[in-house]
Amino acid sequence: MRCPLSFLSESLPTKPTTPSPLSTLTFNPFKNKTFFYLIFSIAATCKASKMDGKLSCRVADAVDYKGFPADKSKTGGWIPAALILGIEICERLSTMGIAVNLVTYMSGVMHLPSAASANIVTDFMGTCFLLSLLGGFLADSFLGRYYTILISASIQTLGTAALAIATKLPQLRPPPCDGTNTCKEANGFQMGILYLTLYLIALGTGGLKSSISGFGTDQFDEKDEKEKTKMAFFFNRFFFFISTGTLMAVTVLVYIQDEVGRSWAYGICSVSMLVAILLFLSGTKRYRYKKSMGSPVIHILQVISAAIKNRKLELPHNVALLYEDSSEHATRIQHTKQFQFLDKAAIVAEGDTAQNPWKLSSVTRVEEVKMVARLLPVWATTILFWTIYAQMITFSVVQASTMERTIGSFQIPAGSLTVFFVAAILITLGVYDRLIMPLWKKWKGKQGFTNIQRMAIGLVLSILGMAAAAVAERKRLAVAKAVDDNTATLPITVFLLIPQFFLVGSGEAFIYTGQLDFFITNSPKGMKTMSTGLFLSTLSLGFFISSFLVLVVKRVTGNDGQGWLADDINYGRLDCFYGLLTILSVINFVAFLVCVNRYIPQEGKDSQKNHSLGEEKC
C-alpha cells in the first residue's frame, strides 16, 4: 500500500526556482502548498509522547499492517520479535526431532542399509536448506516475509501431520523381521509416501529459514542506536532459540519417538507448529513491514546478462564513462578493477536505455555482484564443515545404536546422544560470551574474535572431531570382532562417542556465528537475503556432498553390502571413512587460509572506498 505521505516527494519542486521580489514580500504560508506540506510531514512524522516525555517517531523504511509509516511506540520491538522466534523454536523442534532419529527409523523399521539410511537423512536436510533459496526468492519478489513465513509454517504443519499418519499406519511400512533375521525392505509405494511427507516438511522449513531472521530484524530500526543494540542481541538470542529447540528435539522428542511412538512425537510437532502460527498471527498489528527491494538473484542475473550482451565491446579507458544511476547516489559504490568482464554490463551501447536492466546495469549494481563474487572462495571452503556435521546425525547415531547405552535401568535413545552435540554448542557460546570476549577485550582491545577467526576455529575443531571419531570407531570395531555375531549390543560404552560430538558441536558454535556475521557484513547492503542464502547454501551443499561421498566410497570400496560402508557397520570400516573426511578437512583448511589471505587485501581496499562494505572485521 502506498505511504500516505508519498505525495511530498511529488509536490516539492525538483529544480531550484528564483522567486520574484514581489512574491517574497507577499508570502502567505497558508497559501503556499509546499510550505504547508512540509509542516504537515514534520507533524505527522514525530509526535510527543505525554507518558514518558520522549519523542515517538515513525520508522523511515517500515510500515504497519495498514500500510502507514510504522510508529515506534506501537510496532516492533521485543514482543513481536519473540512471537517470530516462537515459530523458529517449533521449526527446530520438528526438523531436528525428525532428522536426528530418522536414520534409526530407516534402518530399524524400513529395513534399509545403513549407508542408504544415512543418505536419505542428508538429502532431506540438504533439501531443507536448499529450498531456503526458493523461499527467499518468493519473499523478495512476490509474497513478502510475513506471508512467506505464514504459508511455510502451514506447509510444515501439514507435513508433520502427514508424517505422523504415515508412521502410524502398518500398510505404510514393511513387516517386522522374522526370527531368522530375514528383513524385507520397504517397497516403492511405502518409500514414496514417506518421501512425500519429508519433502513437504522440507518445503516448509526452507521457506521459514529464508525469512524468519530477516523478519525478526525488521522489528528493530537500524538508524536508532538503542534499537540497533537490541538487534545485536536478537542475533544471539536467535541462535540460542535454535539451540533450545534442537535440545528439546534430541531429548524429549526422541524419547517419545522410541518409548511412546513416532506418530505421537510427530503429532506433537504438528500441534506445536499450529500453536506457533496462532501466536504469530496475534502479532500482525504490531509487526513492522519493510518494502522488498527485489530479488538479489534477479539483480545478479541482470548484470551477467548485460555483461554477456556487451561482451564484444571495449571497456572505456575512463571509468567515468560507464553508466551510473543518479538515483543511487546515497548507496553508490566506487568502481574496482576486479572481474572486469562484469564492467561491460555498464557500457552504454547504442539504443540502450536505463529502463531495461537486462541490457544495461549501473556501476553500483555491477560492484554489488563483484562483492558477492569475492565472497565465493571463502564460501566454498566452509562447506566441508557441514559435511562433517552431517555425520553427527547419521553414522554417529548408527554407531550409538550398537553400543551400551544404559544408565541404571534407563536406556538412552541412540538419537539422544546428539544432546552432547547441542550441549557443546550452548557451553561454548556461554564460555565465549562470558569468559573469552572479556579477556580478549582486555588483551587485544577488541570485542572477541573476528568472523574469519571464528570460522577458522570451527574448521580446526571439526578436524579434531573427525580424528576423534575415527579413533572411537576403531575401538568399537575391535570389540565387535571379539564378540559373538549374534550380540545385539556391544559391551562398550556409548560415552566413547562424546569427544566427537563435543568437538564438532563446539566447532558449530564458532563457525555458525562466524559465517552469519561474515556474509551479512561483507555482502551488499541491499542483499541481506542473498547473504543469508549464501550461508544456508553451505549447509545444504555440505549435506549433499556427504551423500555424494557415501556413494563414491561405496562404489570404490564395495557396493555389495561390504566395503567401508557395509550394510551392517560392524562388518565395515567406518573408521577409514572418518579418516578420509579428516584428510579432506585438513586440505580444505589449507585452502581456506589461502582464500582468506587473498580476500583480506581486497576487502581492506574496498572498505576504504565505500562504507557499504560494512565494518572491517578481518
UniProtKB/TrEMBL annotation:
GO terms for molecular function: transmembrane transporter activity. The chain crosses the membrane at residues 120-139, 145-166, 238-257, 263-283, 375-398, 410-432, 452-472, 492-513, 534-557, 577-600. Its main location: membrane. Gene3D superfamilies: MFS general substrate transporter like domains (1.20.1250.20). One of its GO terms (biological process) is oligopeptide transport. Residues 8-20 have a biased composition (Low complexity). One of its GO terms (cellular component) is membrane. It is found in: Membrane. SUPFAM superfamilies: MFS general substrate transporter. Residues 1-20 are annotated as: Disordered. The keyword Protein biosynthesis does not apply. Keywords: Membrane, Transmembrane, Transmembrane helix. It is a multi-pass membrane protein. Belongs to the major facilitator superfamily. Proton-dependent oligopeptide transporter (POT/PTR) (TC 2.A.17) family. This is Protein NRT1/ PTR FAMILY 6.2-like. It comes from Cucurbita moschata (Winter crookneck squash).
